[in-house]
Amino acid sequence: MDNNRYEFEKWLRQAEFDLKAAEASEKSCSYEWACFQAQQAAEKALKAYLMLKGMRFTLKHSINKLLKLCLEKEKRFGALSDARELDKYYIPTRYPDGLPDDVPHDFYTQEDAERCIQTSKKALSLIKELTGN
Fold this sequence. Notes:
The chain is mainly alpha-helical. It is built from five helices and no strands. It is elongated and about 45 Å long.
């Protein structure tokens, strides 16, 4: 197995675990964590795809930037433009000073969690389809 495939499989596997964690957090009413974990799942899945394509990168956490890089490799990533919204859940979901007047646990809703999870599932599904996984 070449190194690109090995790294892809590692990162995609962790993305799948992060997505499961997001679903568990949503079920336990930890909506802020569900949103963050869904963001993490999508981020890791996009990075996995880029690694498979031979890209190496410095620390990038922006779904928007990762999507642009993926789009350079495959036009079907255009269908994930709504995944850019996940960038909004990277920091404020985790820190009490990330929101003006609330702590994350009191701010994020089940609807937020469901939307993030569905968006992340869509990203993982496309990547699996494109890579035959």
